[in-house]
Amino acid sequence: MLLMSGSLASTWLLTCIPGVGSIGQVPATMLLAFFDTFGSGSAVQGMLTIGLVCGFVGALFDTYVFYSLKTPKGN
Hints:
The protein is an all-alpha fold. The chain has one domain (about 1-70). About 80% of the residues lie in helices and about 0% in strands. It has helices spanning about 1-15, 20-40, 45-70. It is elongated.
């Protein structure tokens, strides 16, 4: 969530700089459209959905690593 919010904030800050505003507007629009896709039309809901899925996959990966380190390797 922090990475997605940071990238959206940095592209928005680019739009505030005179002369560079048009360069920052395109990525900001693309990011909002990407988040709208996963959020059924809401960018905030899309960011939450992506964040929750990434957290769930990370938890599954940690569980797998914990389990694989606990079981002895068969010879």
